[in-house]
């Protein structure tokens, strides 16, 4: 293998690890923000639990490798184009993730990555360096939009509706009993959210590694170390991650009592597992958690949800797709002379 090609693959692997670390740092604390806010878990215990579940989820995502290899589109005219597309998409997603994290905004790293790939693919196609199947590009766009629109709407609706029967079930119990039971469920669903996050994020990382090796024509490199590495990166990011975005969800956006927090956490965990194992659709843990929290909060007094904060969050969600696609388009077009 040419030294330059080996170097390019090394850069893609390094960027994928950085993506996993940032993903764990940004998103994994969201899975245990509600348990910590409701005093179901201590912050230290919650982070250790989330890191362990992300590690397990990353390893479990290894089953996705076979699917990726069978369905990976024959998009690459040459190795350089594929590696450039993957590198640009990862760099844009990492940059946007850091930008939003610094502002405490819960945005989707998945949609940042998908938008970056679409923008880079458009640039390579326009400059004649690669030929892409229009149907595949359309499918990617549809998946991104479905994840952006459908999953948060569904999470919001289910949380809003399910709070009522949950409240009815506990109508005869004392507040202390309801809160204790809710905190127990929060510990379990918090772990489930972290596990689902690990599976979902591990799949993204596996896809980028598969794309790099496919572009270089070395499919034999696909092995067990990929999901293990994804899980380790996510776990390390979780351990060293901060609570900036979790604070936005549980304090700035809407404060929830333990019962409503339990409903929101259960809904987001359920959607992540359905998306991962049943639909094989890339859902955003951030979108699901945010929408579920807002839905459960609306089933309190109306003023419980701080709507200006929520409107700002939605603006960032939309900007994730538009901004990352545009940035990747410009970067990939500027880098095409290197091919």
Question: How would you describe this structure to a colleague?
Answer:
- This protein is mainly α.
- The chain has one domain (3-338).
- Helices cover 79% and strands 0% of the residues.
- The chain has 13 helices and no strands.
- Helix 1 (3-31) crosses helix 3 (43-60), helix 3 (43-60) runs antiparallel to helix 9 (225-239) and helix 5 (79-102) packs antiparallel against helix 8 (175-216).
- The radius of gyration is 20 Å and the shape is elongated.
- 57% of the residues are buried.
- Residues 71-77 have low confidence and may be disordered.
SSE layout and pairing:
Blueprint: H1 3-31, H2 33-37, H3 43-60, H4 64-71, H5 79-102, H6 109-126, H7 134-169, H8 175-216, H9 225-239, H10 244-253, H11 258-278, H12 285-298, H13 307-335
Helix pairs in contact: 1-3, 1-5, 1-8, 1-9, 1-10, 3-8, 3-9, 4-8, 5-6, 5-8, 5-13, 6-7, 6-13, 7-11, 7-12, 8-9, 8-11, 11-12
Pick out its properties:
mainly alpha; elongated
Quick synopsis:
The chain is mainly α and 339 residues long.
């Amino acid at each position: 293998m040419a030294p330059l090609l080996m170097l390019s693959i090394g850069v893609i692997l390094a960027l994928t690890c950085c993506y996993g670390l940032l993903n764990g740092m940004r998103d994994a604390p969201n899975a245990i923000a509600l348990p910590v806010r409701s005093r179901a878990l201590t912050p230290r215990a919650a982070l250790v639990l989330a890191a362990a579940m992300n590690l397990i989820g990353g390893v479990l995502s290894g089953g996705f490798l076979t699917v990726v290899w069978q369905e990976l589109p024959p998009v690459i005219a040459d190795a350089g184009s594929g590696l450039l597309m993957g590198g640009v998409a990862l760099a844009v997603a990492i940059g946007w993730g850091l930008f939003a994290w610094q502002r405490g905004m819960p945005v989707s790293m998945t949609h940042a990555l998908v938008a970056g790939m679409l923008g880079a693919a458009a640039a390579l196609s326009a400059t004649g360096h690669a030929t892409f199947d229009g149907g595949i590009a359309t499918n990617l766009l549809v998946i991104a939009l479905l994840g952006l629109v459908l999953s948060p709407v569904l999470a919001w609706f289910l949380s809003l509706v399910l709070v009522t029967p949950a409240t009815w079930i506990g109508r005869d119990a004392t507040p202390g009993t309801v809160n204790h039971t809710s905190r127990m469920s929060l510990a379990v669903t918090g772990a489930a959210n972290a596990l689902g996050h690990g599976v979902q994020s591990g799949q993204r990382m596996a896809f980028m590694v598969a794309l790099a090796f496919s572009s270089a024509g070395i499919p034999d490199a696909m092995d067990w170390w990929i999901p293990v590495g994804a899980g380790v990166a996510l776990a390390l990011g979780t351990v060293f991650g901060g609570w900036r975005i979790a604070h936005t969800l549980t304090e700035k956006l809407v404060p929830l009592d333990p019962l409503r927090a339990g409903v929101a956490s259960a809904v987001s965990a359920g959607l992540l597992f359905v998306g991962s194992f049943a639909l094989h659709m890339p859902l955003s843990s951030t979108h699901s958690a945010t929408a579920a929290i807002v839905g459960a909060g609306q089933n309190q007094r109306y003023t419980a949800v701080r709507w200006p904060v929520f409107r700002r969050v939605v603006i960032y969600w939309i900007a994730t797709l538009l901004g990352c696609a545009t940035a990747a388009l410009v970067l990939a077009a500027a880098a095409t002379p290197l091919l």
